[in-house]
Design goal:
globular, mainly alpha, 0% strand
């Protein structure tokens, strides 16, 4: 990687991290349902989990997709199925006080979610292809670091936005309507990824 690629990498990391996608839709819902503080493990799981994902994709998994293109299609299908399940869970979530089952995603769950998130896969593959084309350990590590520094504050803004909506969503009916809307947006957030993946 050459130094002249750094501004482009930073811009790509910011644009891809701040725009709507499955992670940001779930953080918006988490901020609205559980507040910022309880959503911190979720945010950290995304930021750190995605940085680790970039490392592992760059160090080997991208070669698997090059050799066996069907593996990427299978992984994408599994990811979409999981997203549909998550959307159903969000749409049917109760008020946080309603029972012990109401809790935000934890660090491990959020980090593991990156591996079934179609947008995360697209971001990681594009970042490695464009900004670490030689696939050297240094270049891959640098791409991972830049994403780690930019991704976490970017996705956190969605949690803050969700938290600010708590006052409006104080009634069960409004919160239920919001959660259904967020579930629809979560499903819709995958459509651009699928569209861009078409030949």
């Amino acid at each position: 990687m050459t130094y002249d690629l750094i501004p482009g990498l930073a811009a790509f990391a910011f644009a891809s991290s701040i725009t709507p996608g499955p992670n940001n839709m779930m953080l918006l819902a988490s901020g609205a349902n559980f507040g910022f503080r309880r959503s911190i493990p979720h945010m950290l799981g995304i930021g750190i989990g995605f940085s680790v994902m970039i490392l592992l994709v760059g160090l080997g998994l991208i070669r698997l997709f090059d050799a066996v293109p069907l593996s990427h299609t299978v992984l994408q299908s599994v990811g979409i199925g999981y997203l549909l399940w998550l959307a159903w869970k969000i749409a049917n979530a109760d008020m946080p006080e309603a029972g012990k089952s109401s809790r935000p995603m934890n660090f491990v769950q959020a980090a593991a979610f990156q591996w079934v998130n179609p947008k995360a896969w697209q971001m990681a593959l594009t970042a490695i292809t464009l900004y670490a084309p030689d696939r050297s350990i240094w270049a891959i590590g640098f791409v991972s670091l830049v994403f780690g520094l930019i991704n976490l504050p970017s996705v956190s803004t969605w949690t803050v936005l969700g938290q600010q909506m708590q006052r409006v969503l104080s009634s069960p009916l409004r919160l239920r309507s919001f959660n259904i809307f967020m579930a629809v947006l979560l499903v819709a957030s995958v459509i651009p990824v699928l569209y861009s993946a078409q030949p």
